Structures are given as C-alpha cells and as structure tokens.
Amino acid sequence: MKAAKAYAKASRPWYRKKRWWVLAVAVIFVAVAATTGGGTDEPSVTSDDKKTTTTAQPTKPAEAAADEPRESEPEMTSGQENALAAAENYLEIAPFSRKGLIRQLSSDAGDGYSRKDATYAADHVDVDWKEQAVKAAENYLDISPFSRQAMIEQLSSDAGDGYTRAQAEHGAEKAGL
Predict the structure, then answer these.
(1) What is the DSSP letter of 54?
(2) Distance CA 115, CA 85 (A)
(3) Fewer Cβ in 10 A, N or C end of the chain?
(4) pLDDT for 10-34, tens place per residue?
(5) What CA–CA distance (Å, rounded) separates 69 from 93?
(6) Are 155 and 171 in contact (CB under 8 A)?
(7) Range(s) of the chain covered by CATH 1.10.10
(8) Alpha carbons 132 and 97: distance in angstroms, whole number
(9) What span, in angstroms and rounded, lies between the C-alpha atoms of 110 and 107?
(10) What is the DSSP string of 91-119?
(11) DSSP state of 164
(12) If DSSP codes are grouped into helix, strand and coil, which group holds residue 57?
C-alpha cells in the first residue's frame, strides 16, 4: 500500500508537486522584496538615546498614578517593524528556524536588514519553532527520502536549516521518522 502510494506520488507531473509551488512562491516573494527595498537606511534609535530628566514634585500617591503616563514597551523602529512584517511573510510561505530567519532577513541576497533588526523580528514574531521544524521535515520528505539521523542533521546543521537539536528531533519524530 505504501509503495503504491509513493509510486503514485512520484509519478505526478512536476507542476502538481508541492515542492515546485513552494519554490515558485518563495522566488516570487524574494523578487518582490528585492524590488521594494525591504530595509531602511535610517539609523535606529533606542530608548537609551532618549534620556530625559524630571524633577519630582510632591503629590499624593493616587494623583501621581493618575497623572503619569504608564510605562510601556518602547515603540519599534521602522527597521524593526519592516523586518517583523517580512518575517511574518516568510513564515507564511516556508518554514524557517530562528537562525535561518535571521540569516534570510539580514542577508544581502535576502532583505538586507541589519542583524539587530532581523534578530528583533525573529524574537518578536508569533511562531512555534518546533512546528516550523515539522513543516521543514515534511518538505524534505516530499523531495527525497531521509533516515531519522540524516533528517536531524539536515535540520540542525548550521549549513542546513539551523534548528536547535531538540527542534530537529521533534520535527523528525512528528514527520514520521
């Protein structure tokens, strides 16, 4: 049964195979990102650069709490905001590890964001890295057979996808290896 299913899958025309569509969508996305620029030339401003001093005025505690603005996270720079949007777009198209996403966003062949903005995006994007490893393992198995060990090496290698060892093992396991 498995052999017949595998033969039927392998004998499909090239345009009906998932890997070609994934590749085509990725190429289109990279081409669009390259033509729109992606990054920003503006220097990023951190909250440390904006130092202000205030003098304390004696007030009642209830009044002080009502009058003072609440502490919140500093606003994102435009580079961080754009890198985060690009990261979300990449993750809709293909699976990435945290390291692979940073590499893609900061690469000159990719989007060319600063390493700092790319890292910010990878740290703030809403993603389950283990689930990304499962998707990557399934994509590899669509292309070629792998042993469990070879899949873990491919997923966790710096030359490969850059997942952590635990994420790679999870991906291989959930993909059926």
Answers:
(1) -
(2) 15
(3) N
(4) 666 756 666 655 555 555 655 555 5
(5) 40
(6) yes
(7) 128-177
(8) 7
(9) 5
(10) HHHS---HHHHHHHHH-TTTT---HHHHH
(11) -
(12) coil
State how far the Cα of 138 lies from the Cα of 158, in Å rounded to an integer. Answer: 19
Query: Two tokens at 14?
Result: 């090239």
Q: Minimal CA–CA distance to 113: which of 76, 74, 157?
A: 76
Q: Give φ, ψ of 105 to 5 degrees.
A: -70, -35
Place of tokens 């964001």: 113
SS3 of residue 168 by DSSP:
helix
For 37, the 3-state DSSP assignment is: coil
User: Do 30 and 110 contact (CB within 8 A), yes or no?
Assistant: yes
User: Is the domain covering 128-177 a CATH 1.10.10 domain?
Assistant: yes
CB 144 within 8 A of CB 154: no
With contact defined as beta carbons under 8 Å apart, do 177 and 146 qualify? yes
- Measured CA angle at 143 (ends 141, 147), to 5 deg: 40
Angle separating helix axes 78-93 and 98-106, nearest 10 degrees: 120
Length of the chain measured in residues: 177
Reported pTM: 0.58
pLDDT digits (tens, 9 = 90+) for 124-135: 999 999 999 999
